[in-house]
Each structure stands twice: as C-alpha cells, then as structure tokens.
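Researcher: Please translate sequence to structure tokens.
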Amino acid sequence: MPVIKSLLFLLLVCVVVLVSTAGAQSEAEVPLRDQARFYFDAIPHEVPGKELVDHFDEKVALGQRLFFDPRLSMSQTVSCHSCHNLSMGGDDGRPVSVGHGWQTGPRNAPTVFNAGLQIAQFWDGRARDLVEQAGAPMTSPVEMASTDPLICDVLSSMPDYVAWFTRAFPERENPICFATTRHALAAFVSSLLTPDAPFDRYLAGQEEALDDLQKQGLREFIALGCTQCHMSTNLGGNGYYRFGVKHAPEQRYRPQEDLGRRLVMDTISEDYVFKVPTLRNVALTAPYFHAGSAWTLEESVEVMAWVQLDKKLTEQQVDALVAFFSSLTGSLPTIALPALPVSTRETPRPAY
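Model: Translation complete:
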C-alpha cells in the first residue's frame, strides 16, 4: 500500500508540473518572428514551377520585348509598360490608367511585381492566371483596343519576332498567334519577383533587418487582425473579402457603381467583394484601393482599420504600421530596355 500511495503521489506531482508548465507557456509571449513565420513566407528568388514550362527562358525573353512594344495596341502608342511601369512600383502612379484615345479605366492598375504568386488576376479575380490576364488589356477597347488578328499580323510582319516566337514555341507549326503572345507575356510577368525585402531577411533570421518601429508595426499588424486577409507570401492576393466588412467606406473610396465580384459571379453576396491586394512593395504603389483614391499609406491604414476592423487607430499605431509596410519593399528586378525590331512595309499602320 505505501508503494501504491507513493506512486500516486508521484503521478499527482507530475500532473501538477505539466499543468503549470503548460500554463506558463500559454501565458508567455510567442516570439515575434515565430508569429510572423506562422502567417507569412518570403518571396522566392526563382519562379515557382518554371521547370514545368518548356523553353521558359526563351518565353521570358520574348515576353519582355512584347511587354515594352506599343505596337500591340491599335494606336501603337500604349504598351503593357504604359500602365505597369517597372522603374516605379510596377503600376503607373495614377488613380486610374489612361488608355486608347485618352480613355480612362474604371479601376486602379495593380502592380505586376509578384503577380504570379496571387490566386487570380484583376481586382475582381476574373482572370484565373497570368495567361488569361495578358490577353484582356490588349483587346479592351478602353486600354489597347487591338484585336487577335491585328496583333498576329503586326508580329508576323517582323522577321525578328518570327525568329523569337519560333525559339520560344518550337513545337508549333505557326508559332505567332494570340495564345502564344499571351503565354510569352505571362512568362515574363511571372519572373518579376522582388525578393530580399528587409521583412524577408527578418523571416530568415536576421533580427536587425527590422528596426524597433517596424517590429512594433508587425506586432500591431498581427494583433489588430490584419492577417485575416493579408497573409502568406504576398501578404494578400490569395482571397476575396468585402470592402466594408464593419462600415461602408466613403463613396470616394468605394464608388457605388463598382460592385466588384458581383460583376463576375452575378450574385448579390459578392457585392463590393474584391481580391485582397498584395502589400508587397506597397510603399511604391500609391494611390491605393481599387478606385485609387487614397494617396498616402497613413490614410489607407486608417480607412482600412475602421471599415474592415471597426478600429480607430492612434497616431503611434499608424506610424508603426506604415514603418512595417516600408520593410516589405524588395529588390526590384533589373530589366534592360529591349531593342525592338523595326516595322516593315507589311506591318499594319496605327489607327486612332
């Protein structure tokens, strides 16, 4: 009997110790970097899955030339680079972009940097991937206003393009077509990664990569619940949420006529639902929101905290969050301005 009592006593002691230890661990703060690693990943240095794409490098080289070539537009004055300036933030710095005949689009141009890491493309997610997205601006009457046959005629008229398409798509009997043009552009855009941001280095273990204010901003970002929408590698771009979960934004931030995914899904439950924008390089991509109506990060942070989280932030919280956002600016890719082939007599002339 004494032996049994002793064993029972030892068992009770072990239980008490385990419970106490668990309580202490639950009360102790999880290290900030461990919290960050739970929610976020670093931007990769290489394009994920590129080994699955035949002649990927040749497609990227061709897509780079196409990206800068304004002859993909009817007027031959608008290129992909017109709205997605790679020397800036991968966008054009305007509330909405200017396209064919000085027309303007209804939404702010998203950045193309790290676009391949998103769940879908466009603010409403109507394009499943970069290939589908690449074709839409070229044939949009507001943007580049061209057509499938015209694009093929333009590119086929220049021997250099014929050679480049043949290298990128050697398995095709007629390599120049609208589909291959979209695939080449998609390959190039997928290569526009911006790794090595201070935040990425922090995730990798470099404690000094973030200063104290940026770390405080990261704590606020997690504590406030911003990670419900802005998570994973891109801190966004991987889900859809209503803009105005707690409060309806002002009309200038959420124009009443733009119903978001309602126009794609045709269901009232999608009213004012948009793809969550990436926060990568966000310090470079003003103005903000789909209407391009917030010109500073401070303004956008205060708006989002109120309409999405029902929170009024202090000036110190705003400053800390903005400082954290500055740590999300990565190393922009070095892109050489390509030498484009000269138009020939067979090249269709611009139309306005």
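Researcher: Any highlights?
Model: The longest strand covers residues 240-242.
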